[in-house]
From TrEMBL:
One of its GO terms (cellular component) is plasma membrane. The keyword ATP-binding does not apply. Its main location: membrane. This is YnfA family protein. NCBIfam families: PRK02237.1 (NF002586).
Length: 113
């Protein structure tokens, strides 16, 4: 169980990086005035993101996506800090912790039946 959870978290981490990088490429193009060529690696990164989510150890896509959401939120705040140079505040951190706790419940919660 712990090994599968660790592998899933690694997949989620890689997926978050791919999704955020892909979305940021479009942000850079449209909001920051960068070249439209930024869209090409953005699309590739978003395709990688979608493929990575299929590697998550989950029986149902909806559950995999729901749990991934918490990881995405935390990773987005890391991106804010490390790439954009804006340190998340305590409310950002508290919100991310709540989301990660929810993701943990979704991933590791006991299932009936």
């Amino acid at each position: 169980m712990a090994r599968a959870l660790g592998a899933t978290l690694a997949v989620y981490g890689a997926a978050a990086l791919a999704e955020i990088a892909g979305c940021f490429a479009f942000w850079a193009w449209i909001r920051l005035g960068r070249s439209a060529w930024w869209a090409m690696p953005g699309v590739a990164s978003l395709c990688l993101f979608a493929w990575l989510l299929t590697r998550a150890d989950a029986d149902f896509a909806g559950r995999a996506y729901a749990a991934y959401g918490g990881v995405y939120i935390a990773a987005s705040l890391l991106w804010l800090w490390l790439v954009e140079g804006v340190r998340p505040d305590r409310w950002d951190a508290a919100g991310a912790l709540v989301c990660l706790a929810g993701a943990g419940l979704i991933l590791a919660g006991p299932r009936g039946g």
